[in-house]
Design brief:
The complex is a heterodimer of chains A (about 240) and B (about 230). Chain A has eight helices and nine strands. The model of chain A has no long low-confidence stretch (mean pLDDT about 95). Helices cover about 35% and strands about 25% of the residues of chain A. Chain A is globular. In chain B, about 80% of the residues lie in helices and about 0% in strands. Chain B has nine helices and no strands. The model of chain B has no long low-confidence stretch (mean pLDDT about 90). The chains are: A alpha/beta (about 240), B mainly alpha (about 230).
Chain lengths: ~240, ~230
Protein backbone atom coordinates (compact mmCIF):
# COMPACT_ATOMS: atom_id res chain seq x y z
CA UNK A 1 0.00 0.00 0.00
CA UNK A 2 1.23 3.56 -0.57
CA UNK A 3 3.05 5.05 2.42
CA UNK A 4 1.28 8.41 2.89
CA UNK A 5 -1.95 9.69 4.54
CA UNK A 6 -4.11 6.63 5.19
CA UNK A 7 -7.86 7.22 5.42
CA UNK A 8 -7.86 4.95 8.44
CA UNK A 9 -5.15 3.22 10.40
CA UNK A 10 -5.42 0.64 13.16
CA UNK A 11 -2.38 -0.29 15.22
CA UNK A 12 -2.12 -3.20 17.61
CA UNK A 13 -5.88 -3.42 18.10
CA UNK A 14 -6.77 -5.91 20.79
CA UNK A 15 -10.21 -6.54 22.20
CA UNK A 16 -11.02 -8.82 25.10
CA UNK A 17 -14.43 -9.90 26.39
CA UNK A 18 -13.58 -11.11 29.87
CA UNK A 19 -10.99 -13.85 29.45
CA UNK A 20 -11.83 -14.26 25.76
CA UNK A 21 -9.68 -12.27 23.36
CA UNK A 22 -11.56 -11.52 20.14
CA UNK A 23 -8.74 -9.50 18.55
CA UNK A 24 -5.02 -9.81 19.20
CA UNK A 25 -2.90 -6.94 17.96
CA UNK A 26 -4.49 -6.31 14.59
CA UNK A 27 -2.90 -3.70 12.29
CA UNK A 28 -4.69 -2.26 9.28
CA UNK A 29 -3.93 0.60 6.95
CA UNK A 30 -6.64 1.78 4.57
CA UNK A 31 -5.69 4.27 1.86
CA UNK A 32 -7.89 6.09 -0.60
CA UNK A 33 -8.96 3.64 -3.31
CA UNK A 34 -8.27 0.55 -1.19
CA UNK A 35 -10.88 -2.19 -0.91
CA UNK A 36 -9.88 -4.79 1.66
CA UNK A 37 -11.90 -8.01 1.57
CA UNK A 38 -11.75 -9.70 4.97
CA UNK A 39 -12.57 -13.39 5.27
CA UNK A 40 -12.23 -15.78 8.15
CA UNK A 41 -14.08 -18.51 10.02
CA UNK A 42 -17.00 -17.77 12.36
CA UNK A 43 -15.85 -16.19 15.63
CA UNK A 44 -12.57 -14.97 14.16
CA UNK A 45 -13.27 -11.39 15.28
CA UNK A 46 -14.33 -9.85 11.95
CA UNK A 47 -17.46 -8.11 13.24
CA UNK A 48 -15.62 -6.93 16.37
CA UNK A 49 -12.95 -5.44 14.13
CA UNK A 50 -15.55 -3.57 12.06
CA UNK A 51 -17.25 -2.24 15.21
CA UNK A 52 -13.92 -0.95 16.53
CA UNK A 53 -13.02 0.63 13.19
CA UNK A 54 -16.45 2.32 13.16
CA UNK A 55 -15.98 3.64 16.69
CA UNK A 56 -18.87 1.65 18.19
CA UNK A 57 -16.51 -0.28 20.44
CA UNK A 58 -13.33 0.66 22.24
CA UNK A 59 -10.27 -1.52 21.74
CA UNK A 60 -8.85 -2.98 24.96
CA UNK A 61 -5.41 -2.06 23.63
CA UNK A 62 -4.12 -0.40 20.49
CA UNK A 63 -5.52 2.54 18.59
CA UNK A 64 -7.53 3.53 15.53
CA UNK A 65 -7.30 6.91 13.90
CA UNK A 66 -8.41 8.61 10.72
CA UNK A 67 -6.41 10.77 8.29
CA UNK A 68 -6.47 13.87 10.49
CA UNK A 69 -5.52 11.98 13.65
CA UNK A 70 -9.07 11.91 15.06
CA UNK A 71 -10.39 8.64 16.40
CA UNK A 72 -13.58 7.26 14.85
CA UNK A 73 -15.35 7.99 18.15
CA UNK A 74 -14.95 11.73 17.56
CA UNK A 75 -18.33 13.17 16.42
CA UNK A 76 -16.70 15.07 13.54
CA UNK A 77 -14.92 11.90 12.38
CA UNK A 78 -18.13 9.85 12.40
CA UNK A 79 -19.35 11.80 9.38
CA UNK A 80 -16.58 10.15 7.32
CA UNK A 81 -17.52 6.57 8.21
CA UNK A 82 -20.40 4.49 6.86
CA UNK A 83 -21.20 1.12 8.40
CA UNK A 84 -23.37 -1.66 7.06
CA UNK A 85 -23.95 -4.12 9.86
CA UNK A 86 -25.59 -7.54 10.26
CA UNK A 87 -28.62 -5.61 11.45
CA UNK A 88 -30.32 -3.18 9.12
CA UNK A 89 -30.20 -0.13 11.47
CA UNK A 90 -33.70 0.66 10.16
CA UNK A 91 -36.97 1.26 12.01
CA UNK A 92 -39.46 -1.41 11.00
CA UNK A 93 -42.50 0.86 11.29
CA UNK A 94 -41.04 3.70 9.24
CA UNK A 95 -41.05 3.58 5.46
CA UNK A 96 -37.85 3.29 3.44
CA UNK A 97 -38.16 6.99 2.56
CA UNK A 98 -38.70 8.03 6.19
CA UNK A 99 -35.74 5.95 7.36
CA UNK A 100 -33.41 7.53 4.82
CA UNK A 101 -34.67 11.06 5.47
CA UNK A 102 -34.15 10.55 9.20
CA UNK A 103 -30.57 9.43 8.50
CA UNK A 104 -30.08 12.50 6.31
CA UNK A 105 -31.27 14.77 9.12
CA UNK A 106 -28.99 13.07 11.65
CA UNK A 107 -26.02 13.67 9.38
CA UNK A 108 -27.09 17.27 8.81
CA UNK A 109 -27.30 16.83 5.01
CA UNK A 110 -28.64 20.03 3.48
CA UNK A 111 -30.11 18.09 0.55
CA UNK A 112 -31.41 15.12 2.56
CA UNK A 113 -34.68 14.88 0.62
CA UNK A 114 -32.98 14.93 -2.80
CA UNK A 115 -30.32 12.42 -1.70
CA UNK A 116 -33.04 10.16 -0.33
CA UNK A 117 -34.89 10.14 -3.64
CA UNK A 118 -31.67 9.49 -5.53
CA UNK A 119 -30.70 6.65 -3.18
CA UNK A 120 -34.15 5.07 -3.54
CA UNK A 121 -33.86 5.25 -7.32
CA UNK A 122 -30.37 3.73 -7.29
CA UNK A 123 -31.54 0.95 -4.98
CA UNK A 124 -34.44 0.23 -7.34
CA UNK A 125 -36.91 0.86 -4.54
CA UNK A 126 -38.72 3.98 -5.69
CA UNK A 127 -41.96 2.01 -6.09
CA UNK A 128 -41.76 0.64 -2.53
CA UNK A 129 -40.44 3.81 -0.90
CA UNK A 130 -43.62 4.42 1.09
CA UNK A 131 -43.99 0.89 2.44
CA UNK A 132 -42.95 0.29 6.04
CA UNK A 133 -39.65 -1.57 5.87
CA UNK A 134 -41.16 -4.45 7.85
CA UNK A 135 -43.13 -5.26 4.67
CA UNK A 136 -40.02 -5.46 2.46
CA UNK A 137 -38.29 -8.72 1.52
CA UNK A 138 -34.88 -9.57 3.03
CA UNK A 139 -33.12 -8.46 -0.14
CA UNK A 140 -35.03 -5.18 -0.37
CA UNK A 141 -34.29 -4.50 3.29
CA UNK A 142 -30.60 -5.05 2.59
CA UNK A 143 -30.77 -2.60 -0.31
CA UNK A 144 -32.31 0.07 1.93
CA UNK A 145 -29.67 -0.66 4.58
CA UNK A 146 -26.91 -0.21 1.98
CA UNK A 147 -28.52 3.05 0.81
CA UNK A 148 -28.61 4.21 4.45
CA UNK A 149 -24.89 3.44 4.92
CA UNK A 150 -23.97 5.35 1.74
CA UNK A 151 -26.40 8.27 2.08
CA UNK A 152 -23.92 10.72 3.64
CA UNK A 153 -21.23 9.85 1.08
CA UNK A 154 -18.65 8.58 3.59
CA UNK A 155 -14.95 8.40 2.74
CA UNK A 156 -14.65 5.08 4.60
CA UNK A 157 -17.12 2.25 4.05
CA UNK A 158 -17.23 -0.67 6.48
CA UNK A 159 -19.47 -3.44 5.19
CA UNK A 160 -20.38 -6.62 7.05
CA UNK A 161 -21.65 -9.27 4.64
CA UNK A 162 -23.10 -6.73 2.19
CA UNK A 163 -24.26 -9.38 -0.30
CA UNK A 164 -26.48 -11.21 2.19
CA UNK A 165 -30.02 -11.67 0.88
CA UNK A 166 -29.42 -9.98 -2.46
CA UNK A 167 -30.64 -11.59 -5.67
CA UNK A 168 -28.24 -11.94 -8.62
CA UNK A 169 -29.04 -8.59 -10.32
CA UNK A 170 -28.93 -6.72 -6.99
CA UNK A 171 -25.59 -8.33 -6.08
CA UNK A 172 -24.20 -7.36 -9.49
CA UNK A 173 -25.47 -3.81 -9.01
CA UNK A 174 -23.82 -3.66 -5.55
CA UNK A 175 -20.51 -4.91 -6.97
CA UNK A 176 -20.65 -2.13 -9.55
CA UNK A 177 -21.53 0.44 -6.90
CA UNK A 178 -18.66 -0.61 -4.64
CA UNK A 179 -16.23 -0.64 -7.57
CA UNK A 180 -17.35 2.94 -8.35
CA UNK A 181 -16.86 3.93 -4.71
CA UNK A 182 -13.33 2.54 -4.74
CA UNK A 183 -12.57 4.26 -8.04
CA UNK A 184 -13.80 7.54 -6.54
CA UNK A 185 -11.15 7.26 -3.82
CA UNK A 186 -13.20 5.86 -0.95
CA UNK A 187 -11.67 3.24 1.32
CA UNK A 188 -13.62 0.00 1.75
CA UNK A 189 -13.39 -2.83 4.26
CA UNK A 190 -15.70 -5.67 3.29
CA UNK A 191 -16.21 -8.60 5.65
CA UNK A 192 -17.50 -11.56 3.67
CA UNK A 193 -17.69 -15.33 3.66
CA UNK A 194 -18.12 -15.19 -0.11
CA UNK A 195 -14.84 -13.82 -1.43
CA UNK A 196 -15.93 -14.39 -5.01
CA UNK A 197 -18.47 -11.56 -4.62
CA UNK A 198 -15.79 -9.05 -3.64
CA UNK A 199 -12.91 -10.41 -5.71
CA UNK A 200 -13.58 -8.25 -8.74
CA UNK A 201 -13.16 -4.92 -6.96
CA UNK A 202 -10.99 -5.84 -3.94
CA UNK A 203 -7.44 -4.48 -3.95
CA UNK A 204 -6.39 -6.44 -0.86
CA UNK A 205 -7.45 -9.71 0.71
CA UNK A 206 -7.10 -10.50 4.39
CA UNK A 207 -7.91 -13.57 6.44
CA UNK A 208 -8.60 -13.18 10.14
CA UNK A 209 -8.19 -16.29 12.27
CA UNK A 210 -8.62 -16.37 16.06
CA UNK A 211 -8.26 -12.58 16.29
CA UNK A 212 -5.04 -12.33 14.20
CA UNK A 213 -4.29 -11.79 10.54
CA UNK A 214 -3.39 -15.12 9.02
CA UNK A 215 -2.84 -13.18 5.82
CA UNK A 216 -3.16 -9.58 4.68
CA UNK A 217 -1.82 -8.27 1.40
CA UNK A 218 -2.59 -7.36 -2.20
CA UNK A 219 -5.23 -9.47 -3.89
CA UNK A 220 -3.70 -12.48 -5.61
CA UNK A 221 -4.43 -12.97 -9.29
CA UNK A 222 -6.29 -16.22 -8.95
CA UNK A 223 -9.33 -16.65 -6.70
CA UNK A 224 -9.23 -20.41 -7.23
CA UNK A 225 -5.60 -20.65 -6.10
CA UNK A 226 -6.36 -18.48 -3.08
CA UNK A 227 -9.37 -20.57 -2.07
CA UNK A 228 -7.31 -23.73 -2.48
CA UNK A 229 -4.89 -22.45 0.16
CA UNK A 230 -7.56 -20.85 2.37
CA UNK A 231 -8.16 -23.82 4.68
CA UNK A 232 -4.43 -24.11 5.25
CA UNK A 233 -4.37 -20.49 6.42
CA UNK A 234 -7.28 -21.12 8.79
CA UNK A 235 -5.74 -24.27 10.25
CA UNK A 236 -2.19 -22.89 10.59
CA UNK B 1 -30.55 26.36 14.49
CA UNK B 2 -27.57 24.66 16.20
CA UNK B 3 -26.86 21.17 14.90
CA UNK B 4 -27.37 19.51 18.31
CA UNK B 5 -30.83 21.05 18.62
CA UNK B 6 -31.74 20.01 15.09
CA UNK B 7 -30.58 16.45 15.79
CA UNK B 8 -32.52 16.28 19.07
CA UNK B 9 -35.68 17.48 17.30
CA UNK B 10 -35.14 14.94 14.50
CA UNK B 11 -34.88 12.12 17.04
CA UNK B 12 -37.91 13.32 18.99
CA UNK B 13 -39.90 13.72 15.77
CA UNK B 14 -38.95 10.21 14.67
CA UNK B 15 -40.02 8.74 18.04
CA UNK B 16 -43.36 10.56 17.92
CA UNK B 17 -43.98 9.44 14.35
CA UNK B 18 -43.22 5.83 15.33
CA UNK B 19 -45.47 6.02 18.39
CA UNK B 20 -48.41 7.62 16.61
CA UNK B 21 -48.09 4.99 13.88
CA UNK B 22 -48.19 2.04 16.29
CA UNK B 23 -49.77 3.67 19.39
CA UNK B 24 -48.39 0.78 21.45
CA UNK B 25 -47.05 2.68 24.46
CA UNK B 26 -49.68 5.43 24.48
CA UNK B 27 -52.56 3.01 24.40
CA UNK B 28 -51.01 0.79 27.09
CA UNK B 29 -50.26 3.76 29.33
CA UNK B 30 -53.73 5.23 28.90
CA UNK B 31 -55.54 1.94 29.59
CA UNK B 32 -53.29 1.43 32.61
CA UNK B 33 -54.14 4.94 33.89
CA UNK B 34 -57.88 4.39 33.45
CA UNK B 35 -57.74 1.06 35.28
CA UNK B 36 -55.72 2.54 38.14
CA UNK B 37 -58.20 5.40 38.60
CA UNK B 38 -61.10 2.95 38.47
CA UNK B 39 -59.54 0.73 41.13
CA UNK B 40 -58.80 3.69 43.40
CA UNK B 41 -62.29 5.07 42.96
CA UNK B 42 -64.32 1.93 43.48
CA UNK B 43 -62.19 0.13 46.03
CA UNK B 44 -62.40 2.77 48.77
CA UNK B 45 -65.01 3.05 51.48
CA UNK B 46 -66.23 6.63 51.03
CA UNK B 47 -67.38 6.81 54.63
CA UNK B 48 -63.83 6.09 55.87
CA UNK B 49 -61.61 7.80 53.29
CA UNK B 50 -62.63 11.15 51.92
CA UNK B 51 -62.02 12.19 48.33
CA UNK B 52 -59.75 14.98 49.52
CA UNK B 53 -57.53 12.48 51.34
CA UNK B 54 -57.25 9.99 48.49
CA UNK B 55 -57.43 12.10 45.32
CA UNK B 56 -53.88 13.56 45.32
CA UNK B 57 -52.22 10.17 45.89
CA UNK B 58 -54.50 8.48 43.35
CA UNK B 59 -53.65 11.09 40.71
CA UNK B 60 -49.91 10.84 41.19
CA UNK B 61 -49.73 7.07 41.45
CA UNK B 62 -51.69 6.89 38.21
CA UNK B 63 -49.44 9.42 36.51
CA UNK B 64 -46.24 7.81 37.80
CA UNK B 65 -47.05 4.30 36.67
CA UNK B 66 -48.55 5.48 33.38
CA UNK B 67 -45.31 7.36 32.76
CA UNK B 68 -43.19 4.28 33.42
CA UNK B 69 -45.24 2.31 30.90
CA UNK B 70 -44.78 5.09 28.31
CA UNK B 71 -41.04 5.56 28.98
CA UNK B 72 -40.25 1.87 28.79
CA UNK B 73 -40.58 2.04 25.02
CA UNK B 74 -38.11 4.89 24.50
CA UNK B 75 -35.02 2.78 23.86
CA UNK B 76 -36.68 -0.54 23.14
CA UNK B 77 -37.63 0.81 19.70
CA UNK B 78 -33.92 1.46 19.15
CA UNK B 79 -32.98 -2.10 20.05
CA UNK B 80 -34.90 -3.58 17.14
CA UNK B 81 -32.65 -3.93 14.08
CA UNK B 82 -29.74 -2.37 15.99
CA UNK B 83 -30.98 1.16 15.31
CA UNK B 84 -29.36 2.45 18.49
CA UNK B 85 -25.94 1.72 16.96
CA UNK B 86 -26.98 3.89 14.01
CA UNK B 87 -27.75 6.74 16.41
CA UNK B 88 -24.36 6.29 18.10
CA UNK B 89 -22.61 6.26 14.70
CA UNK B 90 -24.20 9.53 13.62
CA UNK B 91 -22.15 12.72 14.04
CA UNK B 92 -24.39 14.09 16.79
CA UNK B 93 -23.39 14.76 20.38
CA UNK B 94 -24.62 12.09 22.81
CA UNK B 95 -26.41 14.88 24.68
CA UNK B 96 -28.55 15.53 21.60
CA UNK B 97 -29.63 11.88 21.56
CA UNK B 98 -30.58 12.19 25.24
CA UNK B 99 -32.55 15.38 24.62
CA UNK B 100 -34.34 13.89 21.63
CA UNK B 101 -35.47 10.95 23.73
CA UNK B 102 -36.26 13.24 26.68
CA UNK B 103 -38.46 15.52 24.56
CA UNK B 104 -40.30 12.56 23.02
CA UNK B 105 -40.88 11.05 26.48
CA UNK B 106 -42.14 14.40 27.77
CA UNK B 107 -44.63 14.51 24.91
CA UNK B 108 -45.82 10.93 25.57
CA UNK B 109 -46.17 11.38 29.30
CA UNK B 110 -47.76 14.82 28.83
CA UNK B 111 -50.33 13.27 26.53
CA UNK B 112 -51.06 10.48 29.01
CA UNK B 113 -51.51 13.13 31.71
CA UNK B 114 -53.76 15.22 29.47
CA UNK B 115 -55.98 12.19 28.96
CA UNK B 116 -55.85 11.16 32.61
CA UNK B 117 -56.69 14.51 34.21
CA UNK B 118 -60.30 14.78 32.94
CA UNK B 119 -60.92 11.19 34.05
CA UNK B 120 -59.50 12.02 37.46
CA UNK B 121 -61.90 14.96 37.75
CA UNK B 122 -64.76 12.74 36.61
CA UNK B 123 -64.06 9.80 38.92
CA UNK B 124 -63.15 11.79 42.04
CA UNK B 125 -65.53 14.69 41.44
CA UNK B 126 -62.89 17.22 42.45
CA UNK B 127 -63.57 20.84 41.54
CA UNK B 128 -60.33 22.04 39.97
CA UNK B 129 -61.41 25.66 39.49
CA UNK B 130 -58.77 27.93 40.97
CA UNK B 131 -56.44 24.98 41.59
CA UNK B 132 -56.04 24.23 37.87
CA UNK B 133 -53.12 26.57 37.00
CA UNK B 134 -51.16 25.44 40.05
CA UNK B 135 -51.95 21.80 39.36
CA UNK B 136 -50.84 22.13 35.72
CA UNK B 137 -47.59 23.78 36.84
CA UNK B 138 -47.03 20.93 39.30
CA UNK B 139 -47.70 18.33 36.61
CA UNK B 140 -45.17 20.00 34.31
CA UNK B 141 -42.48 20.35 36.98
CA UNK B 142 -42.83 16.84 38.43
CA UNK B 143 -43.03 15.27 34.96
CA UNK B 144 -39.84 16.97 33.77
CA UNK B 145 -37.99 15.55 36.79
CA UNK B 146 -38.97 11.94 36.57
CA UNK B 147 -38.91 11.83 32.77
CA UNK B 148 -35.32 13.16 32.89
CA UNK B 149 -34.33 10.27 35.15
CA UNK B 150 -36.53 7.73 33.35
CA UNK B 151 -34.96 8.56 29.99
CA UNK B 152 -31.41 7.84 31.12
CA UNK B 153 -32.44 4.75 33.07
CA UNK B 154 -34.26 3.31 30.07
CA UNK B 155 -31.03 3.79 28.07
CA UNK B 156 -29.13 1.96 30.81
CA UNK B 157 -31.43 -1.04 30.98
CA UNK B 158 -32.15 -1.47 27.28
CA UNK B 159 -29.20 -3.83 26.77
CA UNK B 160 -30.23 -6.02 29.70
CA UNK B 161 -32.38 -9.10 29.19
CA UNK B 162 -35.31 -7.86 31.25
CA UNK B 163 -35.37 -4.19 30.30
CA UNK B 164 -39.14 -3.83 30.70
CA UNK B 165 -38.94 -5.10 34.29
CA UNK B 166 -35.75 -3.28 35.24
CA UNK B 167 -36.96 0.26 34.50
CA UNK B 168 -39.76 0.33 37.13
CA UNK B 169 -37.44 -1.17 39.74
CA UNK B 170 -34.71 1.40 39.11
CA UNK B 171 -36.83 4.49 38.58
CA UNK B 172 -39.18 4.27 41.55
CA UNK B 173 -36.60 5.40 44.15
CA UNK B 174 -35.79 8.42 41.98
CA UNK B 175 -39.47 9.22 41.62
CA UNK B 176 -40.03 9.50 45.37
CA UNK B 177 -38.85 13.12 45.86
CA UNK B 178 -40.88 14.66 43.00
CA UNK B 179 -43.89 12.51 43.87
CA UNK B 180 -43.85 13.58 47.52
CA UNK B 181 -43.61 17.22 46.43
CA UNK B 182 -46.34 16.83 43.82
CA UNK B 183 -48.73 15.07 46.21
CA UNK B 184 -48.19 17.75 48.87
CA UNK B 185 -48.84 20.57 46.40
CA UNK B 186 -51.88 18.83 44.90
CA UNK B 187 -53.43 18.15 48.33
CA UNK B 188 -53.11 21.78 49.35
CA UNK B 189 -54.33 23.16 46.02
CA UNK B 190 -57.36 20.85 45.95
CA UNK B 191 -58.01 21.86 49.58
CA UNK B 192 -58.35 25.46 48.43
CA UNK B 193 -55.10 26.65 49.98
CA UNK B 194 -53.32 29.57 48.26
CA UNK B 195 -50.39 29.02 45.88
CA UNK B 196 -48.06 30.92 48.23
CA UNK B 197 -48.42 28.07 50.73
CA UNK B 198 -46.85 25.57 48.32
CA UNK B 199 -44.03 27.67 46.96
CA UNK B 200 -41.46 25.73 48.98
CA UNK B 201 -42.55 22.45 47.40
CA UNK B 202 -42.56 24.01 43.95
CA UNK B 203 -39.01 25.23 44.55
CA UNK B 204 -38.05 21.67 45.47
CA UNK B 205 -39.52 20.42 42.19
CA UNK B 206 -37.66 23.08 40.20
CA UNK B 207 -34.39 22.24 41.96
CA UNK B 208 -34.90 18.52 41.28
CA UNK B 209 -35.52 19.27 37.59
CA UNK B 210 -32.45 21.47 37.18
CA UNK B 211 -30.19 19.00 38.99
CA UNK B 212 -31.38 15.87 37.23
CA UNK B 213 -31.77 17.29 33.73
CA UNK B 214 -28.19 18.59 33.98
CA UNK B 215 -26.78 15.42 35.52
CA UNK B 216 -28.53 13.14 33.06
CA UNK B 217 -27.41 15.17 30.04
CA UNK B 218 -23.81 15.02 31.25
CA UNK B 219 -23.92 11.36 32.27
CA UNK B 220 -25.60 10.07 29.09
CA UNK B 221 -22.32 9.71 27.18
CA UNK B 222 -20.89 7.44 29.87
CA UNK B 223 -24.08 5.39 29.90
CA UNK B 224 -24.26 4.68 26.18
CA UNK B 225 -20.58 4.51 25.19
CA UNK B 226 -18.91 1.16 25.47
Amino acid sequence: MPPEAPLLEARGVTRAFGAQRALRGVDLRLDAGDAVAVAGPNGAGKTTLLRILAGLMRPTAGEVHLADGRTPRDPAARRRVGLLSHQSFLYDDLTARENLRFTGRLYGLPDAAARTERALEEAGLAARADDPVRQLSRGMLQRVAIARALLHDPAILLLDEPFTGLDVPSAARLRGLLADQRAAGRGLVIVTHHLAEAWGFATHVAVLVRGRWARIGPRPDSLEAFLAGYQELVDA
Amino acid sequence: MPEAVRSALAIAGKDLRLEFRTRTALLSAFVFAVLTLLVFNFSRDQSLISTADLAPSALWITVAFGAVVAMNRAFIIEREQGAFDALLLAPVPRGAIYWGKFLANLAFVGLVEALTLPLFVLFFNVPLGRALPGLLATLVLATIGFVAVGTILSAMVVRTRFAELMLPVLILPFMVPPLIGAVQVTARLLGGRPLTEVLGWLRLLVTYDVVFVTLCTLAFTAVVDE
